[in-house]
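Hi, here's the filled form for the chain we discussed.

Project: internal
Contact: R.S.
Residues: 158
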Amino acid sequence: MQTDQMESERRAFFKKIGWLFEEVLPFDRVLGLRVTKVSEDQATMAFEKREDLLGNVYHQSLHGGVISAVLDTVGGLTALGSLVDRAMGLSDEELARVFGQVGTIDLRVDYLRPGIGDRFTATAWIMRTGRKVAVVRMELRSDRDTLIAVGTGTYMVG
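And the returned structure, exactly as it came back:
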């Protein structure tokens, strides 16, 4: 396969999984998550503070469950992005089967500071990926670049 065609297929794959996470997955829509970057080894998502995402209305800080869910979501997106080479040449039906196999096995979240801010960015990086499992490191930062939480997730990918 020619390099330009392969790169075009890779971009199409990343665009498709971005669309899946923004438009198809209902809970991601509830959280208001937007994919800002996705590649084979990293992904970034962003969302705005909303009153229904707060855990402490007096301090205007995010609910811990929201923080955990966002880290898990960006971790899953990153794990799925790592499958780009396996996805080359697959039909939409075969891709749907690949997407359906990705799931969280384990998630650890360390809450470092209250989730205070107006806009938040979650970033994740592949630490290791294999035929069956991917291990991902995640972090959540505020618009003030304050590190709010970090996490490590293990995801089934095959």
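Let me know if anything looks off before we file it.
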